[in-house]
Structures are given as C-alpha cells and as structure tokens.
Amino acid sequence: MNKTILIVLLAAVVLSVPGAVVFAQPKETAATKIITAQYGFEKDQDIEGWKAQNGNLSFSDAHYKDGQRSLEWSWQTGAMLEIAGLKGLKEAGAVYPGGIPEVYEPSFYPKDRYGGMKIWLYQEKPSSGQIVFQVGSSVAAARMNPKYRFAVNLDFTGWRTVWVCFEEDARVKDYSGSDDMQAMVAFPQHMKKNKGRLFIDHLLLLSFVSNKRNSDLQFVNNKRNLRSADGYEILKPFRVYTNAVYNQQVNKQLLEKESDRIAARLEFLILGDRTDDWKRRGTGIEKELEGKIKGALSVYEQLQLKSTNGTVNGAPLFAIRDEHSAPEGRVFDNVAQDVLFPLAADYRLNGSAASKEKLIQVLDYFLDQGWASGSALGTVDHVIRLTPIATAVFLLRNELHALNKLKPEVDMLAWHTRLGSMLHIDHTRGENSDKVRGGALVKLIAILLMENDARKQEMLQCFKDYMDYVASVAPGYSDTFKPDFSIYHHRGTYLNVYGTNAVNTMALIHWLLSGTSYAMSAQSTANIKQALQRQAAIAFGVQIHYGAGGRFPLNNSAIDGDCLPAFAYMSMTKDTIADRNLAALFNYIYGIAPPAAINKMLLPALTYSGTFGTLDLMVRAHEQSKTNIQGPADGVVVLPYSGLMAYRYKKAFATVKGYNKYVWDYEAGKGENNLGRYLSHGMLIMAQGDERNGFDSLGMDMNDGFDWSMLPGATTKMLPADKMLYFPKADNKYIEGKHRNFSESVIASGLQQGGNGLFALDLRDDVFPDEDRSLFDSSFRAKKSYFFIGNEIICLGSGISNKDSRYNTVTTLFQYHVNEHRMNYFNGKVVDDPTNPEQKADGGYFTDQNGLQYIIPKGQHIVLQQAMQNSYRSVKGTYQPVSARYIKACIDHGCHPKDQGYEYEVVMNTDAAALHPYLEKKSYTVLEKNNDVHIIQHKASGITAYAIYKAHTSLKGVLLTTSAPLLAMAKEAADGMLLTIANPDIGQARWNHNMSHMPDSITNAWAKGSVVTITLKGAWYAANYTGKLMSAVIRNGNTVLSLFCRDGESIDLPLQHREESTEGED
C-alpha cells in the first residue's frame, strides 16, 4: 500500500498539500498531532520547490527508510540544496501551546518552543566532512542570516537519523530577524572529496521534538535535561571507552584461559551439555523454542530482505521509542527478539546451515538500518532489550570472526551497553535495574568477544568492579538495593519484574565469574543471598503483596518466573551444592513453583537466564538437595523502604502495605494497574494452609469481577468501578499523571520483636483532588495499626475522615468470589441466602472460606454483601467490563465520616470450635486509640505495643513519651523487659507530591539517621550492650533513653531494674 494513503487511513483526517502530508486536524494520537509535515519522497511532487545547485536530485530505490524509495542528492564542490516554502516549517518553528505530545511515558510540557525536525540520511561510503542545515525566513535568509543552524557528521555508512529541536539544538546566537520560518538550505562542508552522494528519507517537521533524543557521533544535541539526568545518555560513555588508554601488562595465556572458562560456562547455560537432565523439570521449553524457530523463519520472510552490492535492504527499522516510524516500519528490538536467537539456536542445536546464513544476513541488515556503533537511532530511550542480539552474536562468534564480521558487532555491543561507563563508576548513585537485567550480561558478552589484549583484561576487571557496585546498597531513591533489601526502580519499591530480574542477573553473573580472577566480592555474595532470602520471606508460596509490584499487581509471582534460577546459582559452585541452607530454600521453591513459570526467562528478551544449561543446574541442585527442603522461617519481616511488612506463624501468613512521604502509593501505565490506586491504603492480605498456590488459592479472583475499591484491611471509599478505573493523565502539576504519589506522613512501616511485630500507617491522601474528589481526595485521612502476636492480628483505626458525602468510607474485612463449595459464616451460620444480598449487624464474628476468624466488637456497623457486582477485567492492556458474584464484609464508616474508627481482631490457625475463648473475652486491651496514638496490651504474651503518630504525646503503659513518631513494643517478664523501638521516619531526602522529575540531588542522597528520646516509667538499666543506645539517664524516678535510629530498623534493648548493691566498694 502507498504509504501516504496508509497515513491518511491511520490519521482520521488529513489535509493534502503539494510536497507533503500535512496533519491539520487534532483528532489524532499524541504523536500524530505534533506532525506539521511529512516527506516520504514516494511522489515526484514531494520535492516541488527543492533546488540543487552544483548537484542533482533524483529518486532512488537502492535505499529507503519509508515506502520503496528515497531522495538521492548527488553533490559537487560548492553544492547547495535550497528548499523554498517548505510546508510545515513555519509551524515547526512556532510556539507549542502546551500539552502532552507523546504516547510513551507521557509528560506534560508547558507552552514553549520545542519544534524541529527528524531526518534519515544514508551513505554507501563514509565521508570526512559534514552536511550543514540552515533554516530562515527565506532562502536568502537561510543562507545568509539563518535563525537555526546545525551540522551532521558524515563519518558513517548505512542509515542514520538526526532529531533536532530548533530552539535548543540549532538556534544561532544573537540572531535578529523574522520568526516566520519558510525555507531551509543544506550544503556540505570540510569535505576531502569534491563530490558525493547522500540519500534522504522520512523527513518529518514537528511542533515538538522529543526530549528523549540522544546525541551520537552524527549529531550532538543541546537538549534541556528535564529529568535532571539522562539515564540513557550513550555518547559520553562511548567516548570514555574509545579514548581510554589500555596499557596494562597482559598475560595473554592466562587472560585467554579465564575468558574461555567464562565463555564456556555461558555457552553451557544456553545450550546445555547434551545431557537430558533439563527434561526432568518438564517446563516444555523445547516446544516453546521450536515454536520460536518457526516464528523466526516466518518473520524473516516478512522482512523481504534483498542483498544487492553488499547492501541488505528490507522493511525499514526504527527505535523502540521513535513514535514516528514509517507505516510499514518495524521496531529493531522486536525483530531482534523474534528472529535472532531462534535462528542462532536452530543452527547451534539443530545444525541448520540455512538458519545460520539467514542470521548473518539479518545482522548485516541491522547494521545497514542503523543499529550500529555510534548511532543513537534518534533515541536510545528504552533500548534495553539487548540479550537477543548479544546471545545470537555470541553463539555465532566463530563463524562471524571467520567472515571478518565480528568486529562491527562487538563495537555495536560496546556502544549500546555503554561499556565506557564502567571505566569511571559513579558510586554516588545506583545503577538502573533495566541496565542490570537487560544490559549486564550483554556487557560481559561484549567483553568476552574482544581480542585477548590489554583492553579486554582491563574491561573484565572493570566489569567485576561494576557488578560489585550493582550488588551494593544504593543511596536514596536510586536503584537497586536499599538497606532493608527492598529493590528499587522508578524511585520506589519494585519487588517483582524489575527488581527480581535484576537480582537474578546478578546471581547469574556471580555464577559465571565464580572461581575466576574476576569473581564478585564476598560482600556482593552476601547481599545477593540476603536479597533472595528476603524475597522468599515476604512471599506466600511464590506470591508477594499485590501492592509491592509497581504497575504489575497481578504479576506478583516474584520468585518463580522472575528469579528462581538465582537461588540455584547462589547455592552452587559450578554444578555442585556449596550453600546447603540456600539450596534447601531453593528446593522448597522448586517444589511449589509451576515448572513452566520460568520459561519467560529461558529465552532472551529484556532479561535472560540461560536455557537448557540453566535447567540442568536447577535439576541437579534439586536432586543433590533431595529431602533438604526448608521454607521461610516463622516471624516478621519489615521493609521500611517498601512500606511493607510480612508475618508468618505456623500455617498462617499475612502481609500489609502502606505509603508515605518516601514510599509512593502505586504505579500505573497504559493499560497497566489502572484499578490499583488503593493497593497501599493498608491492604492486609491473609492466608493459611498450603502455600503451593499462593494467594490464588484464597478465592479473591482479582481479575474476574473483584471490587478494587474494597481491598481487605484497607480503609477506602466504596467507589463504583467507573470511578476506580483511572488512566494517568499528565498536567502542569502532575507532570506524568497522578500516580507514584507521596503523602505528607512519615509512618508506613513496621517493627519486629522476636516472632511478633506491628505495622502502622498514617494514611493521608495528599494528591491534589480530581474534579469530583472521588478517587483522589485531599480530605481523606485515617490512622491504622496492625499488631501481630502469635495467632492474632489486632487491627485498629482512628481519625477516619473525609468530606465526601456521596460514597461511603469503609474498612474491608474480606472479599471473595462466591463459590458454592467454599462457605463463609457469620456468627456461626452459613452465609448463603441469595434473597438477602445485604446484611447489617452491630458487631459479630466471621469465619471466612479460608478458615480465618474475624471478631468485631459491638458498636461497629458491619455490612455483609453477597451479590453480583460490576468491575473491569484487565486483558492485554485493555479493560473490559465484567460482572460476577462476590461476597464481601466491611466496617462501614458512612458518608463524610468525621473522626471515625474501628477495632477488630483476626485469629489464625484456629478453627471455629476453638474460637470460644476469644469470643468470651478479648485477649487484649486497647489502652488508647486516637489521632495521636494506638496502644494495645496483650496479657498472655506480656506485650504492650505502641503506634505513636505524634511526638511528645502522653502515653499509657511503660512508655511515657517520645520525641518523635515511633513504633514500640515492650515485652515484660519477671526478670526485666525487652523494649523494641523503630523510627518509621527513614530519613530520606524529601521530594515533591510525586516522583516526577525527581532531581539527582534527591534521588541519590543517602537517608539520614536521627536520635530519638524515649521516657520510660520507672528506673531501667540496659541489660546488654546495644550500640544504638546513645545515653540512659534516670530523671525524677523515670528513665530517659536516647537511641540512634536509621533506616526504620527495629532496635532491641533488654532492660532490667537495678537492685541495690549489698557489697561495699573497694
């Protein structure tokens, strides 16, 4: 199909003018709205008004980036290309009115000049000089008094593109003249030859040129760094790499031996060792790979590759974040993933010589299309899916070397992996998780493919240092590890996908390098192991809290498909168990994880974990461990940097999530987590029994009609589904939309004392409200606490307030998809009356379908509903209406609540017959429950626990007052007291209302500790040395303690009363 016709079909309404397709109507996508003109050179009239002095213009089908032909400009000395009345140029030079100009990572841009052009250029041979472009109000002005001027270096072959924002990248200093841009000229300069040829295609004039554009060897831009730091900057590290002097003395024999050992291990992980051990896992990966090979051959045919005179033409390829590709264009990354590794595997595993030849042709085609060293493709934003091409080159390394085709591929990998960044590691910031999970292995491959010389030796050492840096604790909000082994991405916790993929990559490389001169440090080893153990500890089976996985709440199986191989890698040296404890944990997960869950990591995509050899290792680790199986231990795990706590006791498990001024609430994307605004409003997920099926066994069925406004344990507004469904829309304040929001509170954290603990949340909705103040309501407040002691979870709420008189505010107890085979009970009677869809009660107790007991004291308005409800189901990035029958119970605080509260207890590991003692008499006493503090006293355990929301509050119990908001637990016994405190304020640098455009100074600032002063009733003395205890003073018969607190850590302080001495002093 003619591309102009296709654009018309896609664009809804377009206006044709001579020489261009001009988009005149706003009813388009964000990307098409900003196109002021597009030139594809498919029709002769496309170059009306174009004039070549000392040169010639013609159309050529030899090379093309759009349609089937390009514009060929043959020039000689003194050449000048003049374009008068260039349609769309005036609009490109005008003021952008403000708005959201992009589809990917949409942000709001205020009124300003952002316009410019994108242009693709092709050379068959590199040239030494430049092509200069000048823009003015007329041809004469463009020549003699241009407003904009920029030059493109011509030292390249194949396709290159240049993205130019006129005002930022090309404005002529001290320009004086008209702002009405009408003409452009171009001419060669500094050329050693007196003639040449340049092919031009896919020229776009735009009212907004993306801030995602990247400098490269062809053109260095001068963009404003709106995001404080460009995480995809690529030219600077490349220059560091190419300009470095590599002069270490080299023992080539040793270097070759070490390099070959690492390469052999990597090849083993990919191809296996020709045993059938991998088959015993039964993942079905062989069938998936077979299907991928068939798919690759099909896509190869679709590319319509043609080799002519050493050039491979085919479907035009574009960068993954180029929002203006040709209609028939494809994305480099997608083609690489679909084609390259499957063809390499077909050759290496099946001996297909045809696939080898096809693969070599595709690699040549990629280079010609611009996927080459020194080429930023306009933007390298999100060019992180590099393992498909890297592994293909690695598997074909010998064949490419024999054909003298390996070096361009190694140079390409060095460019795209930013190898130069390892020569001067900036330890003041963390490494982006995407660069770890998508780039670390590719860095290693690039180095392994180098010649055995000083550069390779130094780069291997740098790589070892880089991996130690990656596996260290990072400052502030930067990726990856935090002091509590939360894993960060997007300035917040990401305990699936990004985080777990990154840890898996660390473990993979740790295994590859172990025992070599480049092995990772002992500290890195310890950090990776601790991160893996922490991931297992916060999971029920393999699933984590729905709110801890960013915009992928339903992809919460974090330790099977995302990082199960890591447990094997870190348990083993070569293929022998070296860490029996970690191997026992691996064996536990191996036994409950669905075998096929790992398949998404066994074929190269954004991340990669090896294929057949990886399965061989896992099977061998499992068989060597045999009956050595050990799941996570009972107890409490607190992740202050995630606003998360997990609790495990016998057969029961619970996990709760909040947010505050340092931990954002939720992340949404285009068709991702658009119902998840309340996930961090204190959602308490409880389960008991077999962990094999994780939370899926509970019956919540969160993607099949679930009411996302009523999450268990959370305090929320009971909103209709249409109000819950929210797609972030950028505006002048919320530059990337209302998600990843912070509050003004510091409290969303927990405390651990032995096997018991507590979690507190000062819930504030500080997001500037939406128009009707439903989903975002800046009047919404609640204080929430959860006390975990033995089989009990005691839940308190106070200060529940908002000004919404339309929707009831509720604290939900549970919500399940109705299942006639699974009964729920209220006050001992089955809830199964379809004629009574809603019941109300003043207190009572529930036994839910999972055997959890909920006891709600009288004086609280309980609502029980069992009826059809409307919601949305997430299906491949869309939301489709769905209705289903659910049962849900809540404490109803009514409309426009003012200082409302709640109290209830959940009893676990206890059947209905054994519940009587809890119903007869509460096992705890609420000493205080108000806006300032929640205190409970648990008689049987001797525990008094405190969630203190306000400093200098007078308290009941053994604590009298504290100098800061604090969590505390005092366990008294006959011979003394164990006092545990945790300061929930982790001391991060404070940023804005949400994470958008967080500056480097905040992102990479280390959290600060603080001294907290506590006053205890009576005279107490430290019974053991505690390094965090700064001072202890007896004052007026009471004890004043000062403790240094940091990172939300729980501090145990054993205390005793001191008896008077009966012995005299010497």
Automatic annotation (TrEMBL):
Q: Which residues form the active site?
A: H382, H490, Y498
Q: Where is the signal peptide?
A: 1-24
Membership in a protein family: Belongs to the polysaccharide lyase 8 family.
Residues in Lyase catalytic domain copies: 292-583
Domain Polysaccharide lyase family 8 central span(s) in chain numbering: 650-909
Keyword Manganese belongs to the record? no
Subunit-structure text: Monomer.
Give residue ranges for domain Polysaccharide lyase family 8 C-terminal: 925-985
- A single MF term (Gene Ontology): carbohydrate binding
User: Which cofactors, if any, are listed as required?
Assistant: Ca(2+)
- Could you identify this protein by its name? Lyase
An example GO CC term for this entry is: extracellular region
